[in-house]
Design brief:
Elements: E1 2-6, E2 9-13, H1 19-26, E3 49-52, E4 59-60, E5 71-73, H2 77-92, H3 108-115, E6 139-141, H4 151-158, E7 166-168, E8 175-177, H5 191-195, E9 201-203, E10 216-221, E11 230-236, E12 239-245, H6 258-262, E13 276-280, E14 283-287, H7 289-307, E15 312-316, H8 322-336, E16 341-343, H9 355-359, E17 363-367, H10 371-374, H11 376-387, E18 393-396, E19 409-411, H12 415-427, H13 432-441, E20 445-449, H14 454-466, E21 471-474, H15 481-486, E22 490-491, H16 493-500, E23 506-510, E24 530-535, E25 547-550, E26 559-562, E27 567-571, H17 582-592, H18 601-611, E28 623-624, E29 648-653, H19 667-672, E30 677-680, H20 682-688, E31 695-700, E32 703-711, E33 719-723, H21 727-732, E34 739-745
The protein binds iron/sulfur cluster (SF4) (3 copies) and FE2/S2 (inorganic) cluster.
Amino acid sequence: MVTLKIDGIQVEVPKDYTILQAAEKAGVHIPVLCHDSRLNPFGACRVCLIEAVGNPRMMTACTTPVAPDMDILTNTEKLQRIRKTVIELLLVNHPLECPVCDKGGECTLQDLTYEVGLTKVRFDAKPADTPVDHTNPFIERDVDRCVLCGRCVRICDEVVNIQAISFINRGMETMIGTAFDQPWNCEFCGQCISVCPVGSLNNRVYLFKNRPWNLEKTDSVCGLCGCGCYIELETEGSELYRMGELPEKGANHGNLCAKGRFGFEFVNSVKRETSAKVRAAGELADADFDQAVVTVAEKVKSIRAQHGAEAVAVLVSPRLTNEEAFLANKLAKEVIGTGGMYALEPHSSLPEATYADIEKSDAVAVLNIDVTEANPILGLAVRAAARMNEAPLYVFYPSETALKRLAEKQFTGTPDEVYASMTRLVEGQGAEAAVLEVLKKAEKPVAVYNPYNTADLWFVSELKKQVPALKLAAARAKANSQGIVDMGALDAAKLKEGIQNKTIKALLCFGENPAVRTGWADLSLDSLELLAVTDPFMSETAKKASVYIPVATYAEKDGSFTSLEGRVQTVNRALCKGLKTDAEVVAALAARLGGSLPSCSCEVRELIRKEVPLYKEADFDGGVISYPYAVKGEFEKPAKAAAGEGAYFLYPSSLRLHSGSYTRWSPDLAKVYGEPKLEISPADAEALGLGDGDAVSVSAAGITKVFKVHVEKHMTKGCAALPEDYVDTAQIFSKGRYHKVSLGKKG
Ligand code: SF4
Ligand code: SF4
Ligand code: SF4
Ligand code: FES
């Protein structure tokens, strides 16, 4: 530890602290512009200049390390004068056009101008005449406002590790741009916008829509993928305007991905349903909420009386909060009297490695998942391990992924070849034996894997036997994929069987959309006497319903989600669109069926503590649950990955821009990726006579569908990839995740 004085206040800090950090500890404010706590010190702007008594040279507080007995002054007359000049010089490059700039009210330069009391700039401003760049779908770039602080370049390099942007040109011509000033081809995560201290990089989804002082801010958790990012929902009235980041809170350190930051717009969609519907004479017709609930309850009663309670099944979605899923389970077991509720989520794997475990690990294996696409923040942890911790990284996936630049080695090939490679890994054979040795020798090895492929569970359970120290991270797909399992959801295989053999007559489907889920899309729901569906949208499953009730999204409800790390975090209602939550629907149904269930999340939370042993001591404000195992069960060694006979291997691709079927309703995401496209390699495209955008027919398992082609250079020859969660692709994947398919040019 080091002791020093800052403006007369004595403070003791670790010896690797900077003067800025020491000042923060002493409660002394030093203005900054280019500094950001998430980034390495840079020292570009000179706004944080300080004086040390006895040293004639001024120093930058953000880059200078502390030394014993320093006597630092932060606000002398000389410093005030120089700081004012520094800001004046910054304003030469930055035209003052605050009334029209979207950053007005939350601009560090504007704040600094007030702070130093600058009313007039002595130097002539450079004329602002560079055209504003709109080539990035989510980011507006106005280079004339750039103060060259480098925060955007550094976050894209140090945190996201994409290096999509950098300083280009020299001297007065220096600006932020891409190599050869090409259109931005990046992850669209918007991290660069979030750190830009002025209005040079702006959020196009929010542009000119509102002003920060109008917006109410609510802390919550992103409702899309299983990463569990902590976010700030910015609302005015019943509209959601922007997604803000909270670097000081949450395991994501303020980082978000494109879908979390820009995809929230489905919440505001005018395509959302506002009225319940009951099917009459074959058509879904508007009904009021009570009428819809009574219809469901009466039908449940009559089916139960005729066929027994087991003829009624409850299915929950990972969009439900823990509290809602817990209530749905009570509805199933205690009110209706069936065995319990089901979920289309894997049950054999539980969370083990946290992001911190991954970031600090000394060897990482990523098994059969494109993690930076599927779970971007989990992907950032993997990148941090490889980049900051220099952990050797091994990636097993059919095609090359964004981890390519960091990976020690990538094992690519057809899905059969990747499975053969992973088999050699766990059996310690071939080139993969060396990887097993690295994992065995590591002190803190981790493996990230896809729990949705049953075959993959064999690999991870075998690998765990070989490397007992290995910590596993199951890349769960949706916001509460883990929580609904914790709340007691049963494996849905039995549900499928019950619907197929017609022993199940009624299905109460809370938020789930099986019609677009892999392995479920071919299930006919026609034999059901009652299909009741809740969903914010008229989903593919809702269209088949006997009764449909529109419900709230994650932004409109209270409760908690459990992330893929096993971290339980509180979800807060940020706005109200006048729609019921699933908890309210469950409570209303229970009441009509003669039971009584609370719908208030606080009350339900107390019941969860009492009745769910894992959550007895749970800290719902970010605590991590301690699970009894990471993988459990006897798994069979997979013979080969894909079924079928075609010439190409088809597998599901993960899309950074989409998460399940909700984000398809986000207009801005749809501008970039609005329909499913079949990815193939340039070599295959040439052999098939296909170009980007051409129509191609895909035949698998007796089903043929037509898609547009996207020629992608990272694809392996002989492979094809389609995204999941679209109605046509779900049908192609209805019999499983890997198929041999035939491809043919259409038209
Ligand atoms: S959006 Fe993300 S990946 Fe793209 S330039 Fe900004 S920080 Fe880099
Ligand atoms: S664009 Fe913004 S963050 Fe990037 S260097 Fe310019 S002012 Fe700084
Ligand atoms: S979609 Fe996932 S990674 Fe992206 S912001 Fe939301 S929780 Fe985070
Ligand atoms: S904040 Fe220290 S030099 Fe910019």
